[in-house]
Design goal:
By secondary structure, the protein is α/β, with parallel strands linked by helices. It has four helices and nine strands. Helix content is 30%, strand content 30%. The strands form three sheets. It has a five-stranded mixed sheet with strand order 5-4-3-8-9. A two-stranded antiparallel sheet has the order 1-2. Strands 6-7 form a two-stranded antiparallel sheet.
Length: 153
């Protein structure tokens, strides 16, 4: 996981509609950048729907929410449509952004060790600096937690 106080790595990735987004285009706004393992899994769905429900409050505070996983553009599109998600989902099948943000790590599941995305959320300020970093977040609690962080920052 990257440290707070460091510059957030730049990215250039397609969203669920195939449009490319960069971190640079969000300068001047707070960015909640969250990394999750997989579309349409129980924890990831809870987290995404939580961000979706609170999205108007994030917007009120001038923040954007961006989800990133290694799923494809088409998988993200189905996920967005199924749950009516109002925010950007970035596809990173090459793991470029996932690795740049140090969330591709060893995971243990029932004694088996695999590599995968560790659920991590970053709060990036208007200048592109990481001001908060949370690793191994609880999917259901993360959206409210991040809204609280915005109020404190």
């Amino acid at each position: 996981m990257l440290e707070t106080g460091t510059k957030a790595p730049e990215f250039s990735l397609p969203d669920q509609n195939g449009e490319v987004h960069t971190l640079e285009e969000y300068k001047g706004r707070k960015v909640i950048l969250y990394f999750y393992p997989k579309d349409n899994t129980p924890g990831c769905t809870k987290q995404a729907c939580g961000f979706g429900e609170l999205y108007p409050q994030f917007r009120e505070k001038g923040a954007v929410v961006i989800g990133v996983s290694k799923d494809s553009v088409s998988s993200h599109k189905r996920f967005e449509e199924k749950y009516g998600l109002p925010f950007t989902l970035l596809a990173d099948p090459e793991l470029s952004c996932i690795k740049a943000y140090d969330v591709w790590q060893e995971k243990k599941n029932y004694g088996k060790v695999t590599m995968g995305v560790v659920r991590t959320t970053y709060l990036i300020d208007e200048k592109g600096m990481i001001v908060k970093a949370f690793g191994k977040v609880k999917a259901a609690d993360n959206p409210a937690q991040m809204l609280g962080e915005l109020q404190d920052s």
